[in-house]
Amino acid sequence: MSAIASSDRLTAWLNAVLLFFAGCVVMIPTLWMVLSSFKQSFEVTAYPPTLFFTPTLENYVSLSETTPFLHYAFNSMVVTTASTLLGLILGAPAAFVASWTRITWPAVVTLVARMAPGTLFLLPWYVMFRQVDMIGSYWALILTHAVITMPIVIWVLLPFFDNIPRSVYEAAQVDGCSPFRVFWRIALPLVTSGLAVSAILAFVFSWNYFLFALVLSNSDTKTLIAASFNFIGEGSTNWGALMAAATLIALPPLVLAVIVQRWLISGLTLGAVKG
Amino acid sequence: MARTLSPRGQLLGLSAPALVFTVVMIAFPFGYTLWLSLQSFTATGMTRFEGLGNYGRMVSDGQFWNGLTVTFYLYFLSLALQLFFGTVLALLLFRAKKLPGIVRSLFISPFMMPPVVAGMMWLVILDPSLGAANFILTSLGLPPSTWLASPGLVVPTLALIDSWQWSPYVALIVLGGLQALPPSVYEAAEIDGASGWKVLWRITLPLLLPTLATATILRSVDLLRFFDLIYITTQGGPANASTTLNIYGFRTGFEFFQLGYASALMVTLSVIVLGAVLILNRMRDAVAW
């Protein structure tokens, strides 16, 4: 009996060691990025690399002085916030109707946007937006990013709406409540946590999306992610500033992800896995 | 206004904005690309019906075959790595029982950061002359590597970076599957005196197959369209060794402005992704319990 108990303790110990090692592998590259962003320029390319150094904000300062970083950050905020709102406005009522009527094939059609490569849409969009002279405008970016956000909102909200007992709807209808009112007054207040999760996921994916802004933005409307490409060009001479940019760009999605981590997995797998 | 509409009309009204948006921004462009893929463009910018000419051109285009090979090489290598590391990590997390929320946040952080940022970060770490990765290798007495700079290593390196980002995602999916397994199965195995490895191979992993299939589908959709990380780190190089079909299609369209041929390439890639999803879905149904 005690032999089994001690072998159990051994596996538990081994398990903890392996988990710690895995945690290090996951964490260290990100920590290295953040550390490098606080190094002075001679230190960041030092070989062998240094672990202990006097931290400096020099890189962050030079980023805002030598590049329009704040302007790009503002563009990212505008495009991401607006496309998240648009995704919610379009997606929330659609998810409600899909749940109510049990007709989900239109929602499945939106998944085409998730499966087809972005370039497939970018080619016709480029032609379409050129026709109406919208290339380089915020609206072109907001509308195309809503193609990312709307399916997220629909598929994250669908199980939340499905969880509302049918009897709630039926009672409301007996009282003469129209579908509009049921949606606005009853269903929507019951799925507020779903709205929060879908909004945050939509925000993160819109923020992280690279390809559309790469082609459809101009120097005035360029988002941070699309501008990353320029930072790399400049970064070949200045790693510190490059790592400072990378850290700042990664910050909003990471902060938001930590807030909703509990619900994240079921949302990220479009409900395929319960979190 | 609301009173004059029938409930049916109101439901349609609620879904109308999303339906219109889907038609204008998703369905119509999809059809337009299909149409573009059947056209060729003359020097004056006029289109001329080509039929399947653009698709025929692919067959004799070495770049297309290179793109297809790179796409599948990168796909299978990344998928295998992520399923392996993801499952191992999930088993470790499952056995640790009590996990503080901070640990979960830690494992979420790689795949929540933009792939573009992951690319910037690893470019610096994997720099052949000054990067930290080669410092670690040489400190361990191993030869330094050229990583992304060599045609032979670029795909495995990209697969490693992507696996760093997405293995934790697979792990959290598999962890969900593990937590959903009925405990009665384990109890029965324990009474029969089955060893830990036997339980893992004969019971846990077979029961996890549907979850692994789900993870495979979700990762396949992204891996077959691999783009951001490559565009940021190598732009398809060196010597086209990391030019996936998606990168090739993008360059054909937006660098060489051959819209017809680029459309045909993207339609082909879409068919590959959709086909893979359908096949994998079938496989998931086959292993369901």
TrEMBL record, chain A:
A Pfam entry, by short name: BPD_transp_1
SUPFAM superfamilies, sorted: MetI-like
Membrane topology: Multi-pass membrane protein
Bilayer-spanning residue ranges: 12-35, 69-91, 103-126, 138-161, 182-210, 239-260
Main location class: membrane
Keywords: Cell membrane, Membrane, Transmembrane, Transmembrane helix, Transport
Gene3D superfamilies per UniProt: MetI-like
Lineage: superkingdom: Bacteria
CDD domains (UniProt xref): TM_PBP2
Domain ABC transmembrane type-1: 73-260
PROSITE patterns assigned to the protein according to its UniProt record, in alphabetical order: ABC_TM1
Compartments in which it is found: Cell membrane
PANTHER family, A to Z: INNER MEMBRANE ABC TRANSPORTER PERMEASE PROTEIN YCJP, MALTOSE TRANSPORT SYSTEM PERMEASE-RELATED
UniProt similarity note: Belongs to the binding-protein-dependent transport system permease family.
Name under which the protein is recorded: Carbohydrate ABC transporter permease
Automatic annotation (TrEMBL), chain B:
Membrane topology note: Multi-pass membrane protein
TM region(s), chain numbering: 12-32, 72-94, 106-125, 166-187, 199-218, 259-280
PROSITE patterns attached to this UniProt entry: ABC_TM1 (PS50928)
Family annotation (InterPro entries): MetI-like, MetI-like_sf, Sugar_ABC_transporter
ABC transmembrane type-1 domain boundaries: 68-278
Keywords of this entry: Membrane, Transmembrane, Transmembrane helix, Transport
Primary localization: membrane
Superkingdom of the source species: Bacteria
Localization per Swiss-Prot or TrEMBL: Cell membrane
Record-stated family: Belongs to the binding-protein-dependent transport system permease family.
PANTHER family registered for this protein in UniProt: GLUCOSE IMPORT SYSTEM PERMEASE PROTEIN GLCT, TREHALOSE TRANSPORT SYSTEM PERMEASE PROTEIN SUGA
Protein name: Sugar ABC transporter permease
